[in-house]
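In the laboratory, one determines a bound structure by crystallizing the protein with its ligand and collecting diffraction data. In a computational setting the workflow is compressed into a single prediction: the sequence and the ligand go in, and a structural description comes out. We illustrate the idea with flavin-adenine dinucleotide.
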Amino acid sequence: MRSFAFSSAENIEQAVSAQSDNAGEGAYIAGGTTLIDLVKLDVMRPAQVIDLNGLPLKEVEQLDDGRLRIGALVSNTDLAHHPLVTEHYPLLSQALLSGASTQLRNMATTAGNIMQRTRCPYFRDVAAACNKREPGSGCDALEGVNRMHALLGTSEHCIATHPSDMCVAMAALGATLTLEGPNGSREIAFGDFHRLPMDRPDLEHELEPDELITHITLDTPVVGGGSHYIKLRDRASYEFALASAAAVVAIEDGVIRDARLALGGVATKPWHAVEAEQALTGQPASNESFEEAAEIALAEAVSREHNAFKAPLARQAIVRALKHATQAAMNS
Ligand SMILES: Cc1cc2nc3c(=O)[nH]c(=O)nc-3n(C[C@H](O)[C@H](O)[C@H](O)COP(=O)(O)OP(=O)(O)OC[C@H]3O[C@@H](n4cnc5c(N)ncnc54)[C@H](O)[C@@H]3O)c2cc1C
Ligand code: SF4
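The predicted complex, in structure-token form:
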């Protein structure tokens, strides 16, 4: 492990200016569950580590317009069990509790989860070729062991998945990120935050090197909506998704009035299945409609040697998530 300077920010301005002073070569640390691993593996090499834990960003509050504002440092555990989340956004709670382990969720923060890096084994191995870690070096996953890799949003430069469960729920629910930089704050829609790899897989998101995520604000909940998160994986806990689906539906007289759908484990970013949502709206809440939506969601899937099995898996996840969400809507 390389040595680095360490500082603790006492307020948001200090955190931002510490990054500016480092010309973006520093790294914020929140829970440390991604960063420390990657520093030990020599994948991330920050000149300075800036501790955020003293910042006043640990609150969850309902805004006057009904949206929910989450501080960047709220832990995954506190968020999953917060009464406003379990009551109004059970999908988010379910997704969070399907991730990692209790100990990791106690440390992991909301912003850290959004910023977590891919679990592609070649990214984490400095001896391998990886365009994300070392731009222009190639991608060993393309012809390598790519069983865990993505089908949607890939490019010939990178096929790594975004590993988060929480982000899949946020993609379905709709959210806005608040970013603080040297010139003040700005907002960005959650769906626009993560980038597709295209020819620059190293550029993963829209955060500038000297910006800080301060809050995540969830859209108002879908009125009368039922929801469900399903995660399919190699073992029942402490494992990343092979395929996951987050669904919210509102039903009126047996017809889908509103549908939200997002996928995880199969895409290079938290995947908002917009066309499938549109196809569901106005259709009967039936198996046929759900299967049709699943076909649409995976229509652009491109598989590699070892990951073709993920497409039928993701379709099943979608159908099951929609069925359970419909049941929840009927019972609400
Ligand atoms: C063994 C293991 C299993 C896991 N399983 C799962 C799983 O099943 N599902 C899942 O979703 N996740 C899983 N994770 C990932 C885990 O959820 C993330 O590591 C965690 O959410 C990261 O949060 P953190 O606060 O620890 O981030 P940190 O490690 O502190 O930071 C991560 C990155 O975010 C940046 N950052 C942190 N806060 C901010 C901020 N406010 N503004 C800007 N940048 C910031 C840091 O600079 C760093 O680059 C697993 C992790 C491990 C180690
Ligand atoms: S899939 Fe992406 S992260 Fe994995 S080796 Fe290729 S470029 Fe690197």
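Residues 27-35, 37, 52, 72, 99-100, 104, 107-109, 111-113, 115-116, 163-166, 212-213, 240 surround flavin-adenine dinucleotide (ligand 1) (CB under 6 Å). Keep in mind that any predicted model is a hypothesis to be tested, not a measurement.
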